[in-house]
């Protein structure tokens, strides 16, 4: 299965991006083809309905979203919402990019949890006709230490790792069910 992961931070070394990278690592370990779109490294132009699709990063992003069997959206929580760069990226795509695809929402917060950004992402996914995974991943406070730049995946806190692995396995199972036998 093809999994596209959109890391929606515009900060180098963001814990939400490291978490997204770890999710990609887990999916690849399960023999899935993973494409990571890191919006810090490959920024997209500001959305406008009048814009042409001639921006190189935009074309690659849209193609990755269109060809994906399932999608992961990752964001830091800013002022009780998803990042502006992730919202901008989502504005560039439509229902055809999400229709009947499993979508996992992931967030990192400086506080305890990032429920507002997760709820906002799930609302956007629903409006794009994607299928929200019933579970999401939110890391906050000390949990974020497991996803700092200098931490290798083997050193992720065991409780955090177990939760991430459980949610990712559940998401991949949903994605496989939605993709059907022809896309496996």
Helical proportion? 40-55%
User: Whole-number average pLDDT?
Assistant: 92
Portion in beta strands? 15-25%
- The CATH architecture assignment turns out to be 3-Layer(aba) Sandwich
Choose one word for the global shape. Answer: globular
How far apart are the termini?
6 Å
- What is the CATH topology? Rossmann fold
Largest sheet: 6 strands, parallel
Low-confidence spans: pLDDT under 50, at least 5 residues?
A: none
Counting structural domains, the number is: 1
Q: Class by helix and strand content?
A: alpha/beta
What is the CATH superfamily classification? Flavodoxin domain
Q: Please state the CA-atom Rg, rounded to the nearest Å.
A: 15 Å
Order of helices and strands: EHEHEHHEHEEH
CATH class category label: Alpha Beta
Number of helices: 6
Organism: Paenibacillus oryzisoli
GO cellular component, one term: cytosol
Family: Belongs to the azoreductase type 2 family.
Protein name: NADPH-dependent FMN reductase-like domain-containing protein
């Amino acid at each position: 299965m093809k999994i596209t992961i959109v890391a929606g931070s515009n900060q180098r070394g963001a814990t939400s991006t490291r978490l997204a990278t770890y999710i990609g690592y887990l999916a690849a370990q399960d023999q899935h083809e993973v494409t990571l779109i890191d919006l810090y490294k490959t920024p997209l132009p500001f959305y406008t309905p009048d814009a042409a699709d001639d921006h190189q990063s935009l074309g690659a992003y849209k193609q990755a979203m269109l060809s994906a069997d399932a999608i992961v959206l990752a964001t830091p929580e800013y002022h009780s919402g998803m990042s502006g760069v992730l919202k901008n990226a989502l504005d560039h795509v439509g229902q055809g990019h999400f229709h009947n695809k499993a979508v996992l929402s992931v967030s990192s917060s400086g506080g305890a949890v990032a429920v507002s950004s997760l709820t906002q992402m799930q609302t956007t996914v629903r409006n794009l006709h994607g299928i929200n995974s019933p579970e999401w991943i939110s890391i906050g406070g000390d949990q974020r230490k497991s996803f700092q730049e200098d931490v290798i995946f083997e050193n992720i806190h065991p409780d955090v790792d177990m939760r991430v692995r459980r949610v990712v396995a559940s998401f991949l199972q949903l994605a496989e069910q939605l993709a059907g036998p022809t896309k496996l």
